Amino acid sequence: MKKQLYITAGGKGGVGKTIALLTLADCLKQQDIPFGAIDADTENDGKDGAFGSYLDAETVNLRSLEDCDRLIGLAAENEVTLCDLPANAGGDIMPWFESVISPEVLEALDLEITLIGSVSPDAGSFASVCEWAGKLQERVKYILVLNRKTMQRTGRTLEQTFPEVYATKTGQQFLKGLKPAIVDIEGLFEVSMRLWAKSGQLPSAAAVAPEIPILDRARVKNWVSKIHPQWVKATVATWEVDK
Q: pLDDT tens digits, residue range 105-135?
């Protein structure tokens, strides 16, 4: 199996890129799978919810070519590496990626890259993921995270919640052409989400933290229990050798 680098991508902030990556980190930790962590979202540094505030993460600045090179170097040192990028990172990282990260380089490093594109129900969030995919094409694998953001009591389907993905020509081309794995992240009660974020712990640890009220712990536990199996399926799928 090749070494794996998972990076978040998208142009808009607030679509759940960091939440997606933290639930993946939590899933890996629960399975005792070691991984490296890189926090490239310097705009979020020191805030509640910043990727690096939950893990012992290396920090890189994408505006530095040396740091971009270091990102790949760090990924080559681990079997699995998770990297959180800031919103609108494409302008910083794409020219570097296109200039040096060729299939030959990835082969030499024995490295496979998976793009985690987070999409919210907000208009325009899917377009930024498509922009990345349009440039990277089949050089990387794809996981599409559908972040519902808020709790829904109406039983809306994914197709109804994310029309840009399922009801547009661009969405159909993305799904059929790149065949992304899909991870559906249900909305979590806002108070519970805020308490988890402030705890500085991964979700499974927050679900048993005595300082968090028991009902909020129960909500976090139930929420993450629905997400972990999807990550197992999605990440295993990206490691399979194409037949």
A: 999 999 999 999 999 998 888 998 999 998 8
Give Rg (Cα) of the chain: 17
Alpha helices in the chain (DSSP H): 17-30, 65-75, 90-100, 103-109, 125-136, 158-161, 163-166, 169-178, 190-199, 203-206, 214-239
As given in the structure block, the two tokens for residue 16 are: 């759940």
DSSP 242: P
Beta bridge partners of 5: 81, 113
Residue 82 identity (one-letter amino acid):
L
DSSP type of residue 10: -
Nearest-5° Cα angle at 75, 225 to 83: 50
Q: Is the pLDDT of residue 179 over 90?
A: yes
The tokens describing 197, both together, are: 């974020």
Q: Which pTM does this prediction carry? A: 0.92
Residue with tokens 């661009």: 170
Q: Name the CATH code of domain 3-189+227-239 (choices 3.40.50.300, 1.10.10.60, 3.40.50.11540, 3.10.180.10).
A: 3.40.50.300
- Contact in structure between 82 and 6 (CB atoms under 8 Å): yes
Q: 7 has which bridge partners?
A: 83, 115
Question: What is the per-residue pLDDT across 63-75, written as a single tens digit (0 to 9) for each?
Answer: 889 999 999 999 9
Looking up tokens 């090179």 gives: 69
